[in-house]
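Predict the 3D structure for this chain.
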Amino acid sequence: MIEPENENENEKTDAVREVVQRGLWFEELEPGVRYLHRPGRTVTEADNVLFSTLTMNGQALHLDAAWSETQPFGQRLMNSMFTLATMVGASVGQLTQGTTVANLGFSEISFPHPLFHGDTMYSESTVLEKRLSKSRPGQGVVTFEHLARNQDGELVARAVRSALMWCAPQAGEER
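Done. Predicted structure below.
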């Protein structure tokens, strides 16, 4: 171990500014703005098998390669709940990490094109609308549209979701 030359050498002389990764406060979310979540996520057979079995979804379209080859798409499909969870999950670091109070629900969910093993999913979110909460001071309701496309630009998932978000803290207030 190298010993300091004097007792004060280990003391900080310059204050270091720290930035904690977080999502956006209610006030920072603007209707009509589209947020692109990168990097994309290449989905695998392991993702599909693990997610399907963890959630007790024994659907052969996710797990049985031989049988799935006889079906209209000719191969296994990614579990649509995995697709939904991954699409919304991709938005967390950019939009809601530490700034959301609760997920309020989904009003629309669709899967217009299948997602297959080896596809890369790219997610994006648009703020559709927002309003301050009438019953919860310091919070607001934000409606997001989440979209996921594969590497060819085909829409594989769409969801409209409402979340209860924190307003920005006032001076001296912490969240």
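The helical segments are 45-54, 60-63, 65-68, 80-89, 92-96.
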